[in-house]
Each structure stands twice: as structure tokens, then as C-alpha cells.
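Example noted here:
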Amino acid sequence: MKTLKTRSSVIALTALMVLLTSACGKSETTTPGSTADSKSSPSASPTAADVKKTADPVKVIWWHSMSGELGKAVDKLVADFNSSHKDVQVEAVFQGTYDESLNKMKASMDTKSGPSLIQVYEIGSRFMIDSKAITPVQKFVDADKFDLTQLEDNILNYYKFDDKLYSMPFNTSNPILYYNKDMFKAAGLDPEKPPTTYEEITKAAQALSKDGKSGSSFAIYGWFMEQFFANQGVEYLNNGNGRTAAATESLVNNEAGVKTLTWWKEMVDNKTSSNLGRKTDDTKKAFLAGQVAMTLDSTASLRGIVSGAEGKFQVGTSTLPKPADAKEGGVVVGGASLYILNNKSEAEQKGAWEFIKFLTNPQTQAWWHVNTGYFPITKKAYDEQLVKDNLAKYPQFQTAIDQLHKTKANKATQGAVMGVFPEARQLVETAIEEALTGKKSPKDALDAAAKSITEKIAAYNKTVK
């Protein structure tokens, strides 16, 4: 494992990062009974006994980035945990967006003012490991003999490095295709047979583009390009996507990237796809207004999209498209995970672990999934009646579940990792924008992005021994 030359050098390098939040959807929070079950609560685990070393409860400060209805769901989880764990009390503190929270953590790394536990988006993984500011979750897994096989394999796959789990997955999503079934029917297309390939998307978009409405619109979002690579079984970075060794080169300008951006640009040029910019909120609004027939968005947006279309049209869902001749692949999980900071006392760290275990139990995961739209990370959560009832109400979510489970595990779908991922994502978005607006050809735009990303990786790697 590589070590930092100095902690301050990483902070200096990354302080100017323009970080982007990962996809998450608007949720609807209900107030069911407590998710804490006295029979299934992890409070009876061996580690809990270790926490009971002081008369006062151990206080765990958790920094998170869940706002609005998601924030209310987080508060409910914390309240449930605190009511059933008298020896550990969690205080959830909203710290703004993922990038804002991470920057605050960087500023607190040489002090005791930071959190015990922090939620960090998936593209911050390499930095968190290189920072040496965390205690790998694997330490607590091993000490507690915690069974990781109860968790979803393709979610754990992303957060494992050298077969070690550094953080615990928390909110997890992936992208799917949303389409307007009513528009499909009006265009003479079978609403029960959605397109699954680039070629089928192109053909459907041509039929759907009429009467001032566009067949499709995909936000200029770097996350989508990363997913298009994985779905073709193609790595985004060299050295096994940065997992067999530290990445030294961006591969965004390879054949898979050029093919994808060329397909995308051709649809924009022939006006079967609208370019609405970088915000998924804008494509979502256009979709719900019936202005576009197909769009890409996070699985975490499903409930909000289905509810927003209620009474107007039927929403269909399909898997992320890929070229007809693509290799086996799948999707990379998005969202965030939870890291335990190592500058806190052993009692605080064990308290954070107790909270993490509570979050992974099937009852908690079922409630979190139903009230936010994020995937359950625990397999048995799907056996909970709450989840079964929710799936009956929102059958569109089956697409997301199937897509996750059918994803072929390899370095491409495990996901790329690099210390400058937030900057890289923005550079890719600039390249997509330049290609779609005709400023550069798809190849030239991606060549420039790959060159810039590679240079930034090299600068970052110099700070890491």
C-alpha cells in the first residue's frame, strides 16, 4: 500500500478540486415503526461489550451530505439507533454537498475537530485511502467476524481494494433508461419492448421525435460516460482501472469512448436528442413535462420520476444501453460509503462500527431503500415485506435490481479509481460538451481530456510514495 510523502501535499493538491455530487433522487419519507428490532439489533454483538467502558455513552459524530427528504431519512435512522443503543449515541451533522464535506474533512485532518464517521462519495475512494486518515472497516469486520457475504457482491466489489474493505457502502445507485410508454405507443413502438442498445435507441428516437418533441435527452454527466465504458466491459484507466496498480493514464479516448460520443453527437446533430446541458434535473423536468421520450437518470430518482408522471403518462424503465457488439459488462455502483476516522479514540471508532452494523441489518436497509430509492446493500432486505410491497407499487425498480445482479464482475465494472477523479469527471464533461456543440470532433475532444487527466494523475501520484 502506498503512503503519502506528506499529508499536507495531498491537501494542497486537492484543495482546488471542483467536485461533483453523485446521482441521488428525491425521496419520500414515511414514518413507520422503529427500524430497531430488539431481537435483531446488532447491539448484542461482542463489540458492543467493548464499547461499555465508560459511564457516559460514547458519542459518535457523523458527517453526511443528505439534504431535504434524504436528510430526514438519515435523522430517522439515527433516532432509531440512539433509542436502542444507550451506550453509543450518534449525532448526524449535515456538511453540505459531498465535495464541501470532503474539503471540511481535509481541513480537519491535523486536528481533533473532525468527525468520527464520514460519508464520502464513491469517486473520493482513492483519496480517502491515500490520506491515511481512516481505519479500514476490514479491521472491525475481522475482529467481529462480521459476515460480508450477507451484503450485495456487486456493491462490495467497488469498495474493495486488494481484497480489503476500507469503507462500508451506504447509499448506492446506478443509472437506468427511463422512457414514456404513452409516447412509445403513439409512435407505433411497443411500450413493453424498450431499446437496450445504441442502435435501438437511435431507431426509437427517430420515431419518437415529432410534433416538437425530442426522442431523447441525456445530461452531460461524466458519471454516464464512466457507466458506458463499464457496460461495454472496457476499463476507464490503465493498470486494471487503477486497481492492480496506481493508474497513470486515462483511457477515455479509446475506441469505446469515441464510439459512444460519436453516437451521442449524431443524435444531437439529427435532432433526435436534445442537449439540455449538464444538470440531470433539467433532463428530468423535460421528461416529466413530456418534452422528451427517453432519458438517463439514477435509480435513486425512480420514485420521484414515477410520482411526478402520475396522472400524465406511464413510466417505463430499461437497462443502460450499450453497442450491440459490446463485450460483457454491467454498471458501476454510484453513491457513497462510510469511513471511520483514525484520529478518534478506540471507543469512538468501535461506536461508529456499531452504528455501521445497525445500518446494514435487513430491517434498516429495507426502510432506507423504500424511503429513499437507494439499493439495499443487504441481500435479505429483499425478503422484508416492506420491500416486497414497495416493489409491487413500483415494478419499474425491478429493472435496477436485475441490472445490478446481472453485472459481470471484472475490473471494468469494479469501477475506476484515481486520486483526481472529481477533476477528471469535469474534464470529461467539458469534452462531451465540446463534441455535442461542434467545437471539437469526438476524438479530438476526448484526446484533450485524456491528456489533461493523465497529467493530473501524474501530479497526484508524485505526492504518493
